[in-house]
Amino acid sequence: MKTIVEINSVNHGSTGTIMRNIALAGEKKGFTVYTSCQRAKSTQGEKYHRHLYIGNRIDRNIHLCLGRMTGKYGLYSSFITRKFLIELDKIHPDIIHIHNLHKGYINFEILFDYIKQNNIPVVWTLHDCWSFTGQCPHFERVGCRKWVTGCGQCPSYKEYPSNIDCTKFMYEKKRESFLGVKDLTIVTPSIWLSKLVRKSFLKDYPVRVINNGIDLSIFKPRKSDIRKQYGIEDKIIVLGVASIWNVRKGLDVFIRLSKELDDKYQIILIGLKQEQIDRLPSNVIGIERINDTHQLAEFYSAADVFFNPTVEDNFPTVNIEALACGTPVITFPTGGSAECIVEGCGMIVTEENVKDFIENISVCSFDRDRCAQVGLSYSASDKYAEYVQLYEEIVRRYEK
Questions:
Q1: CA distance 352 to 337
Q2: What share of the chain is helix, strand, coil (3-state, %, to 5)?
Q3: Using CA atoms, how far apart are residues 236 and 334, in angstroms rounded to an integer?
Q4: pLDDT digits (tens, 9 = 90+) for 208-217
Q5: Based on the number of CB atoms within 10 Å of its own CB, is 303 exposed (0-12), middle (13-18) or buried (19 or more)?
Q6: Helix residue ranges per DSSP H, the chain
Q7: Which fold has domain 226-378?
């Protein structure tokens, strides 16, 4: 029986859920799978039955503090990383599956030295661009291309955050650490990100696209009393959903949109903090994060259109959740956000022509049945099965 160890920054949220569900899919196919993540206040939710915590809250806070002062996120936590590797020695993993290494919980240099010394095959799912930049998880908004040849003089280093620009040093440190792994397969959730990888210093490694998936037993067209509940039966509902609303997710676009739409439209935003709700224009309905996914699916189903004005994203799950509920999607040509859009199921617009989007909501011919049909191609169980198939391919290579 082959053993897999998954490593991620958290065991909750989108990446934590993906990690756990891949573990479940692997177990069903006969693999012994462990999950692992940092121990922090935000990671005390559901965990897999074979789970290893990496370090403790004190170490993580020290790592984050030092990272903020120096810009060297990922080069601290040496002791707890070595302690974690002692646990890996006991497990003898046949494959290490990496997700997010940032968030200040592990020393990536020590981890990759261990991988190289032990010739352990690696699967690395990139949920953003951090692995091949000096620091940034995303760089589209500022239009930076320095990561292609080497970072330095970063236009957004303070956003990570960091007090000094250490991106040139960190770019070289990552390049030195990540290159030289004998067997590394990179997985990206979007075609867009796979193309970026092929332009980065990771370009010589094989890249496979496995889209994020959703639970189709939950996200499907549903009957809903949302319109009646909010007294908006005769409105055209424009829905936005995000786990964190900020400029990157397009909150400012929605605010501007609320000033341009007439009263036959109703904007609903889900995932806001209470202080954000308090500042919303009176014609926008603001709702805090909805943890009940069945209820969230009711909002998707009630909406006439789902609008995702994200300006930096990989492959947003909210788009496919909306489609699976039969709701057309309008989005910017950002990252992989538009990759799920097909004819009759949505539109791709730019921030400059948001007014066109407003005028086209009611006149475009959207096919809700076709939207739901497109959503069926993003079954989470099918996507997790693709990861297991990748594990099996790697195992077969070493059995020859």
A1: 17
A2: 40, 15, 45
A3: 25
A4: 999 999 999 9
A5: buried
A6: 13-28, 57-70, 78-91, 108-118, 167-178, 191-197, 226-230, 251-260, 274-278, 293-302, 317-324, 354-360, 368-375, 380-399
A7: Rossmann fold (3.40.50)
CATH code of 3-213+380-399, in short, is 3.40.50.2000
C-alpha 208/C-alpha 95 separation (Å) is 16
Cα angle 47-50-54, degrees, rounded to a multiple of 5? 70
CATH 3.40.50.2000 domain residues, the chain: 3-213+380-399, 226-378
Q: Which pLDDT belongs to residue 43? A: 47
Query: Is it the case that residue 296 has pLDDT exceeding 80?
Result: yes
DSSP state of 352: G
Q: Tell me the longest C-alpha to C-alpha distance in the chain.
A: 67
Q: How many CA atoms lie within 13 A of 5 on its CB side?
A: 22
Cα 257 from Cα 358, distance rounded (Å): 8
Structure tokens at 255: 């605010």
Give the number of other CB atoms < 10 A from CB of residue 294: 11
Contact between 186 and 202 under an 8 Å Cβ cutoff? The reply is yes
Q: What's the Rg (C-alpha) of the chain?
A: 22
Distance separating alpha carbons of residues 176 and 146, to the nearest angstrom: 17
Short-list 108, 38, 15, CA closest to 314:
15
Q: Report pLDDT digits (tens) over 236-276.
A: 999 999 999 988 899 999 999 999 888 889 999 999 999 99
What confidence score (pLDDT) does residue 40 get? 66
